[in-house]
């Protein structure tokens, strides 16, 4: 499967939708305590299976349902996902 197209391209970073192949990298940044302190709530991912669940059952579904979700941020020097940005659908805010 091909990685999704790049949506934003800057000198240092790229932004694109997540895909199933990103599970290992999502696990890596989502279990990093130094990063998690900047994200409200309990979002620690404890396994590759959990990372894949988040990608497939939250982010990919939100892209399809709402047209937006969290997007992968790729560090261009090493082509590694270093985190995410974007929007999160909050039903209570409707």
From TrEMBL:
Residues 12-91 form the N-acetyltransferase domain. The keyword Transferase applies. SUPFAM superfamilies: Acyl-CoA N-acyltransferases (Nat). This is GNAT family N-acetyltransferase. Pfam families: Acetyltransf_3. The keyword Transferase applies. It comes from the Bacteria. PANTHER family: GNAT FAMILY, PUTATIVE (AFU_ORTHOLOGUE AFUA_3G00765)-RELATED-RELATED, N-ACETYLTRANSFERASE DOMAIN-CONTAINING PROTEIN. Keywords: Transferase. GO terms for molecular function: acyltransferase activity, transferring groups other than amino-acyl groups. InterPro entries: Acyl_CoA_acyltransferase, GNAT_dom, N-acetyltransferase.
